[in-house]
Amino acid sequence: MNIIVIAAGTGKRLGIKTKDLPKYLIKVNEKTIMEYQQEMFEKIQYDKFVIITGPHKEKFTFTNAVYVEDINYQHHDILGSLMAARDYIFGDVLIVYSDIIFDYSILSKIIESDVDIGIAVDMNWEKNYENRTEHTTEEAENVLLDGDKVLEIRKHIINKNNIGEFLGIMKLSAKGSKIFVKKFLDLERFHKGSFQNAPSLHKGYLTDIIQELVNSKVNVKPIIVTGKWCEIDTNQDLEKASIMFK
């Protein structure tokens, strides 16, 4: 299995903390987000730990990783940055956002799931937004489910039934990796203009290509998780994470 962490963003909402430092290296208490994630990854078997970098790539000093620089990070969002590492999307793959901390109960459920294309979904997601005024429920990457199928994934889905939140972790089998990469390459060759909810393909989010797969009748499975996790997008989130993971 290859683990790919998308760490090419600028993390502007954390202000001065990310002026000269990648968000992945922000400390929560005494450990960086990367160290929290790496502690979890060490509990599973994997082949390569791939970190996609953007600004301040020189700040990464961890030696047991493969670094892929997204030289066009200023013109990309999450999807464009991910595909800078397309050469590592083969076999079993775990794709992870760089601004989330999670416990092992979540990671183990994802790893043990038998899916070709699966995304981690928290159905009890609204609890994470209590007293969260700087990043509200309207910004959640919601997932609408029909049993064990993903029907829709985007921000601010109005329907309140069978709605969860995408954690920012995706699992691909060898078959799923081939489907995922082929879909992107086909889009790169032929797609013009806006892409799902994004202004362009390379400005797309991971959620946009997931929706494209769903629209193409590819079966994307939800991996329903329970456990402790936290997204760190704002200083308020950082304070919350410091309490949750102390």
Structure notes:
With 246 residues, this protein is α/β, with parallel strands linked by helices. The chain has one domain: Spore Coat Polysaccharide Biosynthesis Protein SpsA, Chain A, CATH 3.90.550. The chain has six helices and 13 strands. The chain has helices at 33-41, 78-82, 104-112, 174-190, 206-215, 235-244; strands at 2-7, 27-28, 31-32, 48-53, 66-69, 93-97, 100-102, 117-122, 141-146, 149-155, 163-172, 221-224, 229-231. The strands form three sheets. Strands 1, 4, 5, 6, 8, 9, 10, 11 and 12 form a nine-stranded mixed beta sheet that branches. A two-stranded antiparallel sheet has the order 2-3. Strands 7-13 form a two-stranded antiparallel sheet. The longest helix has 17 residues, at 174-190. The protein is globular. The mean pLDDT is 96.
Q: What count of structural domains?
A: 1
Radius of gyration: 17 Å
CATH superfamily: Spore Coat Polysaccharide Biosynthesis Protein SpsA, Chain A
- CATH architecture, by name, is Alpha-Beta Complex
* CATH C-level label: Alpha Beta
Mean pLDDT equals 96
Q: Which bin fits the share of residues in helices?
A: 10-25%
Largest sheet: 9 strands, mixed
> What name is given to the CATH topology?
Spore Coat Polysaccharide Biosynthesis Protein SpsA, Chain A
N- to C-terminal separation?
30 Å
Q: How big a fraction of the residues is strand? A: 25-35%
Count the DSSP helices: 6
Shape: globular
Structural class: alpha/beta
- How many β-strand runs? 13
Order of helices and strands: EEEHEEHEEHEEEEHHEEH
**Low-pLDDT windows of residues:** none
Subunit arrangement of the protein: single chain
